[in-house]
Amino acid sequence: MKNILLLGSGGRECTLAWKLSQSPLCGKFYIAPGNAGTGAYGINLPISYNDFEAVKKACVDNKIDILFPGPEEPLVAGIYDFFKNDPALKHIIVVGPSKDGAQLEGSKAYSKKFMERHNIPTAAYKEFNVDSFERGVAYIKRSEPPIVIKADGLAAGKGVVIAQNTIDAVKAFRAMVMNAQFGEASKTVVIEQFLDGIELSVFAFTDGSNYVLLPEAKDYKRVGEGDTGLNTGGMGAISPVPFADDAFMKKVKDRIIEPTVKGLKDEGVVYHGFIFFGLIKVKEEPYVIEYNCRMGDPETEVVIPRLENDLVELIQKMADGKLNEVTVQHSTKAAGAVMLVSEGYPGDYPKGRAMTGFDKVKGSLLFHAGTTVKDAGVVTNGGRVIAITSYGDTIKQALEKSYENAALINYEGKYYRKDIGFEF
Ligand code: AMP
Ligand code: GLY
Which of 79, 96, 105, 283 could bridge across to 273 with cysteines, CB 3.0–4.6 Å? Predict the structure, then answer.
């Protein structure tokens, strides 16, 4: 039996909590800080996951065996190294990469250079900073729009601008580099070629040498129907992805996943845990748009329900370097998730709105995202409020069930996209 501490408070963490708590190998189970949903699967601890000393104390006090950071922030800030360098913590299994490995997500410039070194297909790019600003402007002027401008560091999902013309591109570039729009994160900027294709998310779980593939997924990032409007953290997701057929996935494995895992190993980068490949299919060819060092949200809400293996056992195999002994079993059912959000999201939104209707939901899984408990009731506490996931023989059937139940959960200012999975 393993005592587990899961870090995070979103729909991803609620899904992971649901899954981990089902394992016969799961001992005492804690989530920090968690939400109103995770409380059903374990004990919520009111600590911030960015406060490593508080996380340490929780691990020591509760005799934790496995630390599972859900979001990227603590990983990019080096929680793995913090644990491995502390005699009181170093025996704890950390599900995630070292600080160096997390740079795959923490620095776009690092990940682009990594891909270049290992010949991994990605958009052509150049990197600029304050000192090379004028050269950056010249590069933009030579480029064919649309032009993609990316802040190097973490910018809470807002650091990417797709400019339709040179003037807007220069404006975005100037705001990031000269006016420090995203602070330190945009001191360096990557300018890259626009790739025209369809996106999907692929997840590998690695022990540093071997890897297993989880079911692939597609998320719906735009707030508006028909993929319009502002980018969000994700308004819904589906799995499997119909266009990710065997021939395409073979290319993904051969050209992207294997060179990535091998490249990290060859360079001596310590990497255990999830690698999230944000991919784009251009004609029949896969390219990497981005790497993340964690699971996706809301992809987790459809990927994990389709994973039939025991997740604690997979984590133990990862820690033992024995993922080569594992065969991943996927459900043949499709899964579809619809995210209910707060009015105003991804801009400003209200919090504390009372939620009702949970008891009416039938045939779907509810994964809380931005919720909390107040006066013994559940209230909204974030932009993305709750994910409703269903299984079905087809994606369409799964989503029909999720939509039936989406209508039954109520709070003031509820909004959700009615067209998740519209292409399939
Ligand atoms: P990222 O934060 O790198 O995932 O970028 C956010 C979103 O911007 C992606 O999900 C894509 O929709 C889009 N994007 C990023 N880079 C490119 C690119 N080179 N070509 C086309 N779209 C892109
Ligand atoms: N759904 C995209 C992400 O988790 O970054």
Answer: 96
